[in-house]
Amino acid sequence: MSHHQVLIIGGGSAGITLAAVLTKSGEGPQVTVVDPAQTHYYQPLWTLVGGGAAKKEDTGRPMAKVIPPGVAWIQEKAATFQPERNCVTLGTGEELTYDVLVVATGIQLDWHKIKGLKETLGKNGVCSNYSADSVESTWENIRGLKKGRAIFTYPTNPIKCAGAPQKVMWLAEHHFERSGVRDQVEVVYASSTAGIFGIQRYAKTLNRLAEERNINTQFRRNLVEIKAAEKKAVFQDMDSGETTEMDYEMIHVTPPQSAPDFLKSSPLANEAGWVDVDMYTTQHTRFPNVFSIGDSSSLPNSKTAAAVRKQAPVCATNIQAFMAGKPLTATYDGYASCPLVTGYGRLILAEFGYGGKIMETMPFDQSQERYSMYFGKAHALPQLYWHGMLKGRW
């Protein structure tokens, strides 16, 4: 058994950013990160990898290189939580104790919940940007399609980056247009949601673009099965429960997602399986020395890296206040950002907080397509992520 001042479970965007913020002054608490991964990925760029506008090798860095200086790294997997003992058990059976625990384990991709998906992912016209193993197959399918139906799906919520399922669709549609096959390809956006985007300011523009670009939008449709041999996708009507089939030449699947299984069964979870924290302070509602940010938390915001950028300083400030026996005064306002790529060189920058409050930062209408914002997504944001956010500077 080993003891740690601040123990962070998860070395993704949330875990590394928080570790960097806590230690950047050199006077913070001793921090340990627990994560088994060898590679840390900047996943927001996978949209452009799937659209042929970026390379997969540019989206990853060795985990050892992103762990902040002075932060200890245990390259193992957490298995169980015993918050009443201030203890985490690793997959090896080793127990770690802590003064403060932060859960930042991310979200689980439930490929198995769509019948027939796992065995055909990455082949037979079935692709997804949501996995490092399959993201390159998306571009292979897009550039290889000359005619037929291309389907892009959105499962039931919550998912990470709610705009990602349609971003790749817009890139694909633009590619079909530029390569002269658009008239031969039907583009279908089949979503379990009631509309194209949850914030009306941006949905208005997206609906107009869908009409102008002849996108076949089908809402309240949830993918439940892939019949790869027949190239058929089975959808369930979210209102009637009835199922229908659609033929496809390619289908980009966004998998159902949930809290990691080992978290769902822990004392830290709420009824939905997420770490049960206060939506403003990020502190656990029952165990005061436990905090959570990022996709595994119950924070009712859009699950994006941009949200983590705002959550991490709040969480760090409140952890330090807790350790000093002071009131928790820092608050998170639900800020999230969704750079909605709508084609090559086109982007709508959605920024919003709790309650759908618009929180745009640019001095112009961000609900309209702009090249400048696309340039930021493709070139500026990755650099700010690696050299700013993960260093605790941005």
What report would you give on this structure?
With 394 residues, the chain is of the alpha/beta class. It folds into two domains: 175 residues, FAD/NAD(P)-binding domain, CATH 3.50.50.60; 148 residues, FAD/NAD(P)-binding domain (3-Layer(bba) Sandwich), CATH 3.50.50.60. Helices cover 25% and strands 26% of the residues. It has nine helices and 21 strands. The strands form six sheets. Strands 1, 2, 5, 6, 7, 8 and 19 form a seven-stranded mixed β-sheet that branches. Strands 10-17-11-12-13 form a five-stranded parallel β-sheet. It starts with a strand and ends in a 7-residue tail after the last helix.
Summary, kept brief:
By secondary structure, this protein is of the alpha/beta class. The chain has two domains: about 1-105 and about 260-325, FAD/NAD(P)-binding domain (3-Layer(bba) Sandwich), CATH 3.50.50.60; about 110-255, 3-Layer(bba) Sandwich (FAD/NAD(P)-binding domain), CATH 3.50.50. The chain is built from nine helices and 21 strands.
